[in-house]
Amino acid sequence: MNKPVAAALLMIFLLTGTQALATQKWISDASKPHFVNLLERLLSACETPAADDDATIDAALEAIRQVNARDYEIARAIAEHWRDVYLDDDYPLFLYHEGEATASELEQTSLRDSDRHAFVVLGYKLRDGQMEPELMRRCDAAAAAARSYPRTIIVCSGGATGDNNPMMHTEAGMMRDYLVESCGIDASRIFIDEEAMTTLQNAINTMEMLQQQAIETMTIVTSSYHQRWGQAVYNAVATLYRQYYGYSVDILANYSYDTEPSDKAYLHGERIAIRQIAHLLDVPMEG
Q1: Residue pair 103/255 in contact by the 8 Å Cβ criterion
Q2: Share of the chain above pLDDT 70, in %
Q3: What is the mean predicted confidence (pLDDT) over 133-158?
Q4: Domains of the chain by start residue, with CATH
Q5: How far apart are CA 216 and CA 218, in angstroms?
Q6: What does pTM read for this prediction?
Q7: 129 DSSP assignment
Q8: Rounded distance, CA 150 to CA 159, Å?
Q9: Burial class, 52, CB count within 10 angstroms (exposed 0-12 / middle 13-18 / buried 19+)
Q10: What is the Cα–Cα distance from 211 to 216, expressed in whole angstroms?
């Protein structure tokens, strides 16, 4: 099969998978009000912590369990991951330090080199069709991780974003070129999704690619302010894949370029994460 045809088939596969995921009815209508309550409780526990947060979250989970067992398993997985990444003050973020050739902090963890592991690199909006320094640093972090773990693959995700981009350059395409040309990463290790425009679409599209490559574990590579948000959304999508398709991929680690968001809208990533999870589940939430 020639490369243009293969690329076209992959694009059809990704789009079909994305549309199927977006239109799938994941949870019962009877559970949806209880999911609204659960997501509101998770967000409140993050933004305005209270002594009874665990109890109110557990009560929301129990209400879902009383309605539907499968819905409960989905809710429990989302809530437990949220507790880990957002509500545990000791949850570690592993940071890339600019200029490092290898991922020294990751090397101190239990993460092991494996061809069943992937570093998933999330995109950042282009300016005039070109990468911003922040996206380059995310790629530098991914390259450092790839050098420390040479058997892994790299998945880059991000579409044609930003104003004044007449050539429709994509974040993922630019990331791949940068990783190969500036970082010396073998192109055969890099897979790209050039369609995603949001973190939720990142997760949906790359989940299809991870399944194709028989990946079992993953590390999200992004900016530090985006890491928890990205993990929460990816975990929700992975939970649905596990429940409905029998494919399981675990978020085993995290790796981030340490920076503050330049866009004030990203100062509250937890709110965006909750909205995107609600959208995924077709749960009506205000705001």
Answers
A1: yes
A2: 92
A3: 98
A4: 3-87 (no CATH), 95-262 (3.40.50.620)
A5: 7
A6: 0.90
A7: T
A8: 26
A9: exposed
A10: 8
